[in-house]
Structure prediction request, 352 residues.
Amino acid sequence: MRFPRYLISSWPYVVCICCSMAIGAFVLAVAGVKAPIIWVAVCLVIAGTLLAICLDYLRKRRFYSTLERYTGEVEHPLWITEAVDRPDFWEGEIAYDALSSVAKAANDDVAGYRRQATDYREYIETWVHEAKTPIAAAHLTLDNIEAEPSVAPLLHEKLGVLDDELNRIEGYVEQALFYARSEAVERDYLIRAYDLKALVTEAIKANAPALIAAHITPVRKQLDRRVFTDQKWIEFILGQVIQNSVKYACAEQPIIEFSSRLVAAGSADERVELTVRDNGCGVSEADLPRVFEKGFTGENGRMGKRSTGIGLYLVKRLCDKMGVGVSAASREGEGFAVTFSFNTNKFHYFEG
Prediction:
């Protein structure tokens, strides 16, 4: 708080004192007091007023200056009262107590919402694990029925459709689990060096039924590289991209290609880029910048593809949490590609 601003904010007091001083000087002059004495009295009043203003400014300056500085610098406004000392003047005490009350109420609300979010996440995780049991039992029952020699071919076909739908449900359940855990990824991942080809292979195996059903041929190129990542999370991320390719696969000879390259070799920015590319319907130029937004389905998703707009949003969210770069490229009618960027320096992930 600078003195000119404080002086301007104190204008009512200055005006009142000036008016009182003018009236007093007029009364003294009417009473016959000599001019030198009146001037001495006026000067004394002026000096006293300035001294009082300066002392009041010095007393309040520290509190308001600190408050003003921390308003722009503190990471969270609710922490301001922790960084500012309680002042020793009445107006400051009121302001400090009001800020403390607001901060306490807000912190209590935030703590309550965090507890609710934690409870909800734990419930979702428990629910997912419980839901997997009947799904697995349903799969086992279907397998036993299909193994019966007396089952008619038509029934075999219907059982296959039912099995596909169970796989779809299982995928959505798994997606719900990872969505619930996405708030606390940093507490649930372990960065290690992995063989990129092995990670891609595991992701393909996990989504093999969907790829087979859509007649999509996976192609792997130049994947003999090592990357630092977490196996569980990256396989789920790749699975979401694979499922997205399955959903929007083209009618004839659909493929999904996994390829990698080393970028900026030997420099501090050295990284491995993994590109997952398909030859599906692609995304329009207008929709491309929004493919990672939550709930965004685009023109293709509104044409009956049962899109939820969650898959790629989760991909982006999890990649950001893990320090993995992600970007998308597409041409409508020619395919869609997602590129992941893995830093080759392990410590990059811990710093991020």
